[in-house]
Amino acid sequence: MYNNFLTCFLKSVVTLGAAVGGVLGGYLVDKIGRKLSLMLCSVPYVLGYIVIISAHNVWMLYFGRMLTGLASGVTSLVVPVYISEVSHPKVRGMLGSCVQLMVVTGILGAYVAGITLKWRWLAVLCSFPSCIMLLFMSFMPETPRFLLNRNKRAEAVAALCFLRGPHADHEWECQQVEASVQEEGLNLSEFKNPSIYRPLLIGVALMFFQQITGINAVMFYAETIFEEANFKDSRMASVVVSSIQVCFTAVAALIIDKTGRKVLLYISGLIMALSTALFGLYFKMALPNGNNSSNSDVWFTLNSASPGTESSISWLAVVSLGLFVAGLLNVLWHILALLCLLLPQRNFYSFLCS
Fold first, then answer.
1. Domain 187-354: which CATH class?
2. Which residues form the Major facilitator superfamily (MFS) profile domain (predicted)?
3. CA-CA distance, 288 to 218, in Å (whole number)?
4. 98 contacts 111 by C-beta, under 8 angstroms
5. Which is nearest to 295 in space by CA: 221, 235, 228?
6. With left for phi above 0 and alpha for psi between -120 and 50, is residue 136 left, alpha or beta?
7. In angstroms, what CA-CA distances link 174 with 78, 155, 178, 183?
8. Under DSSP, is residue 343 helix (H, G, I), strand (E, B) or coil?
9. What are phi and psi of 143, to 5 degrees?
10. CB environment 125-150: b (16+ within 10 A), e (fewer)
């Protein structure tokens, strides 16, 4: 029982760090800039993996996971902000879609690497992307919006020249950004305005329901879920599920502008509800005389169930869980980004993402 608690806490402690990182990222992104915030994220990433690699006890693993979670929380906020502010309006939607696509691709890569690598070597491998980000971000400019907000017009023009090329109309774009920068600032009295509180309430509600669907818990415990479902190769099943998520995220990024966010949200919600019911049906068929709690009784019940029951319907577990993780997450971040565009205030965006 105690070991189960330690294992569960080890998996979930990263979310505690991410919660702190979301709040910290909302502060850093306006105080020190988007570029420097991203570069500083590499420090807790690398330190966290170093602690994990050299861990001699479980508390070092907790601390390392907390540091990587902290960095993840900051990057999950700063990266979309940086991309939205440096990208051209014609490709902003596509580049914004790539954020979630890269997230799920990274999860898939970790699952694939985990098949052959021990956990220490997996931590070594995971430390490289943050180092690469630090290296390449050193050559990237700060966002023109942040520079204009700090009255650094010459540097903003230079950044636009780097991003758009020397033949673009930098002065016109600077004027457009300056006009939006002048509108920044949000007082508490403005929350009486429906154009302020409605997007806020919708955004908070969407992210709340997204969290209580259990999408993060499913991704963290995918291998454990398949193990308790008596799946023969739980690691490979996790890879398949993650691959399905990558494919659906890529498809959503391609069709979301044509179909609309609301339509995709309806469809994904229905698919998630159906897939959850199917997965419950699988456990009911695989465990006809027991429950699906995470204890030794599960294994006893599975072993006493009719032979071949699990293997004959194992495809149902993979398909249902794959459809579940493919649904809600990507679409919600698109809707959140659009809601935040209704207001020019960056603090509104930071609050929702946090």
1. mainly alpha
2. 1-354
3. 23
4. no
5. 228
6. alpha
7. 22, 11, 6, 15
8. coil
9. -70, 140
10. ebbeebeebbeebeebbbbbbbbbbe
Q: For residue 209, what are its two tokens? A: 């329901």
Single-letter code of the amino acid located at 184: E
Residue type, 132: I
Rounded CA-CA distance 345/25 in Å is 16
Q: Is 54 helix (H, G, I), strand (E, B) or coil?
A: coil
pTM for the full predicted model? 0.75
Maximal C-alpha separation, the chain: 74
What are the distances in angstroms from CA 137 to CA 8, 39, 103, 140? 35, 7, 18, 5
CA 338/CA 134 separation, integer angstroms? 29
Cβ contact 71:149 at 8 Å: no
φ/ψ (deg, to 5) at 316: -65, -40
Cβ-Cβ contacts under 8 Å for 217 (sequence gap 6 or more):
none
Q: Is the pLDDT of residue 116 over 80?
A: yes
- pLDDT computed for residue 354 by the predictor: 52
Assess contact for 111 and 242: CB atoms under 8 A.
yes
- CB within 8 Å of 256: residues ≥ 6 apart: 93, 97, 264, 331, 334
pLDDT, tens digit, 9 for 90 and up, residues 241-277: 788 888 877 877 777 667 777 777 788 788 888 888 8
Query: What element of type H or E holds 305?
Result: none
Domain positions in the chain: 1-82+120-135, 141-182, 187-354
With vertex at residue 333, the alpha carbon angle to CA 258 and CA 273, rounded to the nearest 5 degrees, is 85
Domain 1-82+120-135 has CATH 1.10.3720.10: no
Note whether 84 and 96 are within 8 A (CB): yes
Q: Which of 94, 98, 347, 337 is nearest to 206 (CA)?
A: 337
State the helix-helix crossing angle for 2-31 and 58-86, rounded to 10 degrees: 30
